[in-house]
Predict the structure.
Amino acid sequence: MILRIILSFSFWFLSFSIFSQTTHEAKPLPTSERLGEVFKKGQHHGNFRSFFMATDNARGLSDYYGLAAGGYLHFQTASFKRIRMGLAGSFHFNLASSDFTQKDPLTNALNRYEIGLFDVENPTNRRELNRLEELWLRYEWDNTWISLGRQILQTPLINYQDGRMRPTAEEGVWISSTRLPSTKIEGGWLWAISPRSTIKWHDVGASIGIYPRGLNPDGTASGYPENLSSKGVGLWGMTTKVKKIGKIQLWDQYVQGVFNTTLLQTDWEFPLQKEQSIVVGIMGLHQYALGNGGNEDPAKTYFPTNQVSNAISAQLGWKKEHWQALGAYTRITADGRFLSPREWGREPFYTFISRERVEGSGDSHSFTGRLIWQDSPTRWRTELAYGQFYLPDIKQAALNKYAFPSFRQVNLDVRYTFGGALEGLRAHVLILWKGNMGNTYDQPKYQINKVDMWHYNLILNYHF
């Protein structure tokens, strides 16, 4: 295992200058009065990524590694009669990895993290990892635009969760407006989703259950994958800035025939003396079933019709020049399990830290602390995070969907942005440890890829 990791890291090191990726903000595009010039005046940007990932589980359990490399190209036309078009596609390859079709001999468990660099629906796919991610038409007027087609959205409840090679993408109609003072209103209807770590597009019902399905409240295996019926997702949000110190967000997610989620969040930053400030944030979330929760058969439904979910999350912090210190707490009540398709994005709570979630839990308490240092002009960024996550007993399926024990986690996240001849290149190292705080009943299946493990990420990004 160690030899394989060393060889994979060597491949990663040799390929760093060719393959990497990061987010890119396109410059404002010009308009054109002639149709023939909309492509000539259009703009493009691209990026490449090299990503090495490895997991070191407890002694006696399988370890894993993966090395991926790929790229992305986006083109957007100039505006013609207030209409513009966008097109984007991605590709990546499995350069070296563990055999993701092999189960751990002791627990019968499959790989959890590294397969996400490639195609979770086809672990044997090493080369055909291509996807048409964006293809849309947009009409713009008076600080408002409406877009139709495939696009990549970033909201608290559906987002690109770009922690692997390529993000989650959506297909539908989306409108965004900033006509009201200090207020942004956005929303739309989505009928297809291509989750992160996949290459195919799925209707809304079929997109739920591609990742691990967990358990029904009665402890039986969830039967909703490929058995959910939904016409689409209605999602809208309003964000209002309050003077220069506050922001209020209200979001509602309507998954037809399955469930509804409402989120209210407010964030404030109060200035103090000597360039210091206090950061305060609080959010509340409420969920309930719609129709039959996705299927008439209770064993195949996603959101039980007799269940609701309530959560509150809060954050308090201090900022001064290059430093931030943040503490957060999330409480999911015992009313029911907080459910949000992991295929659609990361959870919105302040206590979220990379490589783990509390989605699927009820009657849970999460505590996190972060210390962040960021150099100017943002060459270095270092974050040290620690969290303790208290979940119900792993045998209490009604409030612990994934039979995940309570755990503690430490993350070290270091990023560096190069300048000079290497401008556009960014390096990212993420190292984390997860320790067990719950009862696993001496069964390693509750331990592998969950607790008592180290996890390593070495990433090089380049954009142009």
About this structure: The two ends are 36 Å apart (CA to CA).
